[in-house]
Write a structure and sequence with these properties.
Rossmann fold; five-stranded parallel sheet; three-stranded antiparallel sheet; 8 strands; 26% helix; globular
Length: 182
């Protein structure tokens, strides 16, 4: 994979993940008071790393889930190929829960809008907060992240790519022109 420019190193990613986890714990000191739900694809390993750090900070592990939003996307019928649909795994009742939705990049807000639709099909949470590794700013929808690792204002024609290695360890955040293949 040839990427234009590394924005953040694996060590910087690790530091940002720790900062996001610490910010979550400052708002919700007891992991029993919230659940983490990661969005496929890169929100899931990010959520797992945040959960590990929360466990390290508090001595308790938060409950975690994985959410596939493929069928909720507003561009579902416009894609050229068949989408990869993953299994949503939410092993707890969402009703009345404080949910921290985790995704890698907040860009247009469309992914998060789809995630909100999907979550409410599983129940009625008490509240939903958003944690992202990278917030690009200026979303198309009125959606803002509550917990942010990095803020980045790359040009709209550039894609931000968050990478984890095969073991789930941070591998870097990159910027790439949309017109180049990833």
């Amino acid at each position: 994979m040839t990427l234009e420019k590394q924005l953040f190193s694996p060590d910087e990613m690790t530091g940002a993940i720790k900062a996001v986890a610490a910010a979550i714990v400052s708002k919700f000191p007891d992991p029993a008071d919230f659940v983490l739900v990661g969005l496929y694809k890169q929100g899931v390993p990010l959520m797992e790393k945040i959960a590990e750090e929360i466990s390290r900070l508090t001595g308790k592990s938060p409950q975690t889930g994985k959410l596939d939003i493929t069928m909720y996307r507003d561009d579902f019928g416009k894609r050229s190929g068949l989408p990869l649909i993953r299994e949503t795994v939410i092993p707890f009742d969402l009703n009345g829960e404080n949910i921290i939705l985790v995704d890698d990049v907040l860009s247009s807000g469309r992914t998060i809008r789809a995630a909100l639709d999907a979550l409410t099909d599983y129940g009625r949470p008490a509240l939903i907060r958003l944690a992202v590794l990278v917030d690009r700013g200026n979303p198309e929808f009125p959606i803002r992240a509550d917990f942010v690792g990095f803020s980045n204002n790359s040009p709209a024609e550039h894609k931000i790519v968050v990478q984890f290695d095969d073991n789930g360890s941070p591998a870097g955040v990159y910027e790439k022109n949309w017109n180049q293949s990833i």
